[in-house]
């Protein structure tokens, strides 16, 4: 691992920790979907995280976007359906 990668990972870890800590102050009003942790839990152990990224190792590739969708879609759908039900409307 080169120095640039190490610095990026340290900064990313710090940034995500700050977000998680900030969330604790607003947890009644917000839903934290910890995508970073999901990817780490699923791919980091086998060092397969890179398989979800483009060659720049920063942006999602097709596999990463598919995983992102699999995490977010059911959560967003549930929230939208809940709002629709609360307003007496369903599509």
Briefly characterize the structure.
Helices cover 63% and strands 0% of the residues. The chain has 91 residues and is an all-alpha fold. The longest helix is centred in the C-terminal third of the chain and has 25 residues, at 62-86.
Which short descriptors sum up this protein?
single chain, about 90 residues, 3 helices, about 65% helix
* Tally of distinct domains: 2
Kindly report how far apart the N and C termini lie.
50 Å
Biggest beta-sheet profile = none
Helical coverage, percent range: 55-70%
Q: In total, how many beta strands?
A: 0
Strand content: under 5%
Estimated radius of gyration: 17 Å
Order of helix and strand elements from N to C terminus: HHH
Mean pLDDT, nearest integer? 82
User: How many distinct helices?
Assistant: 3
Any low-confidence stretches, pLDDT <50, length ≥5? none
Quick one: overall form? flat
Structural class: mainly alpha
Architecture overview:
Helices cover 63% and strands 0% of the residues. The chain is mostly helical and 91 residues long. The chain has 2 domains: 30 residues; 59 residues. The termini are far apart.
